[in-house]
Write a structure and sequence with these properties.
With 448 residues, this protein is of the alpha/beta class. It is built from 16 helices and 14 strands.
């Protein structure tokens, strides 16, 4: 859906459903209209209404009436293309089925497969719903262009927090107008407190875990396995994996590690930065570690510099997080426990997790295939930019690079190299603590 650029939408009638928190869909509508499209948006909450700028409709009924409403909008407005964010939301699943049956093109936005400087736009679906090939031979033969340099988005936490607070505030205040809508998170003013707590915890753990990264990058280098967690309500977890929760995944990994990992290795569980304000798994990890007899071989960390951890890990275990792609970029052995578009022979470890602990040291990623895979992924699904912090680009309200030649004035670097340096928290300053792999580690208070 990105190969033709914005010009491909000229003359089309585009319907926008729910987008990311904030004004991204409002700005996207301006870009589409500038390209010659007619754009209509449907609002489901007060937050959606707050960030809608052009022609829009309000859906104020229950989910059982959504299908008829959506079908009527498609017919009445002669919609050609439906764009949405998150293909696992209940209303979006229903819309997807109806649009596909009518032959209406469906485009799904999602956080970038390659972060933090890309967003994903893919026809039909994303992640495990993606129709990208899963074939080793396909990517070895694939013809892709040179991976373009990228414009750096920078730290997005402040912007994302601001949009979230405004979205949930508007949704709470205008709840009487949209009383039948059921969101995947509570539509309460109290959601703003979650982001405040997240900022406080970020500072707290930065101080509490000082020195942990240096220890992992020196004394424990190549002796630890990294387990990056995902957000508790991530559709990737409850839709595209066998786990009902992040807690269940943690228990599964700790039990397998205790029974099968080499005795001199350590398990490092890293909290997801966007889940910091909602959950803390410290007590769970400590309880499970004690019961399994591996308490002294567990670390539970938060905001350490992810690329440094990937560089020094013996192996990485994920459900299906895009951190997996970062691990592959570093050539770090990777075990996927859910469904992921990159879980392909030649890239990931395909045998059971119990065997991964012992085999990781001798497993290697097929570098040629990975380069081909990344090139194809960027060519077909990735747009340089952010949902939460716009790139300042000429002629683009949304701040997305639709044309490969459209660049900022400041220097850029190749996308694959940027992927090596990306942090899931967007906090590159953490690189100062532990980037150097030699030298004595600072004394660190053990977690448990």
């Amino acid at each position: 859906m990105i190969s033709g650029g914005l010009a491909a939408y000229a003359g089309k009638r585009v319907l926008l459903l729910q987008g990311p928190l904030g004004p991204f869909f409002k700005h996207l509508a301006l870009d589409l209209e500038g390209a010659g499209a007619k754009v209509l948006k449907i609002n489901f909450t007060g937050g959606d209404w707050l960030f809608s700028g052009g022609p829009s409709l309000a859906f104020r009924k229950g989910l059982d009436e959504w299908a008829a409403f959506f079908d009527n909008v498609l017919v009445t407005h002669q919609i050609d293309t439906v764009l949405l964010f998150g293909d696992c939301r209940a209303a979006h699943q229903i819309a997807h089925e109806i649009a596909a049956r009518k032959g209406v093109e469906i485009g799904v936005f999602e956080e970038g497969y390659i972060r933090p400087d890309y967003v994903t736009l893919e026809r039909h679906g994303v992640n495990a719903h993606s129709r990208l090939p899963r074939s080793f031979d396909f990517y070895l033969r694939a013809k892709t262009g040179e991976v373009p340099p990228v414009n750096h988005v920078g730290n997005m936490f402040g912007h994302a927090a601001m949009w979230a607070i405004l979205y949930y505030l508007a949704s709470a205040l205008l709840w009487p107008m949209f009383r039948h809508y059921q969101h995947h998170r509570p539509l309460s003013i109290l959601e703003g407190l979650v982001w405040i707590r997240s900022a406080w915890r970020k500072l707290y753990y930065r101080r509490k875990e000082r020195g942990a990264q240096r220890k992992l990058a020196s004394a424990l280098s190549k002796r630890f396995f990294l387990v990056p967690l995902q957000v508790h309500n991530d559709a990737q977890v409850h839709t595209h994996s066998v786990f009902d929760s992040v807690e269940e995944f943690i228990g599964h990994v700790i039990a397998s590690f205790a029974a099968h990992a080499p005795a001199d290795t350590v398990l490092v569980i890293k909290h997801h930065p966007m889940d910091r304000g909602y959950h803390d798994y410290f007590e769970l990890v400590r309880r499970l570690g004690r019961a399994a007899g591996v308490l002294e071989r567990l670390m539970y960390i938060h905001d350490q510099h992810l690329p440094t951890l990937l560089e020094h890990a013996r192996g990485v275990v994920v459900i299906n997080s895009t951190v997996g792609l970062s691990a592959l970029t570093h050539g770090t052995p990777l075990k996927v426990c859910g469904e992921a578009l990159y879980d392909i022979e030649g890239l990931t470890y395909r045998r059971p997790l119990d065997q991964f602990w012992g085999d990781a040291a001798s497993f290697s990623v097929n570098r040629k295939m990975f380069q081909q895979f990344i090139g194809y992924l960027i060519d077909t699904t990735q747009l340089n930019g952010s949902f939460y912090r716009r790139l300042r680009l000429p002629g683009s309200a949304a701040g997305l690079v639709w044309q490969r030649s459209l660049r900022l004035v400041r220097p850029v670097e190749p996308a694959v190299e940027r992927l090596r340096c990306a942090d899931d928290a967007g906090d590159d300053k953490r690189a100062r603590d532990g980037r150097v792999s030699n030298g004595a580690p600072r004394r660190t208070r053990e977690k448990f």
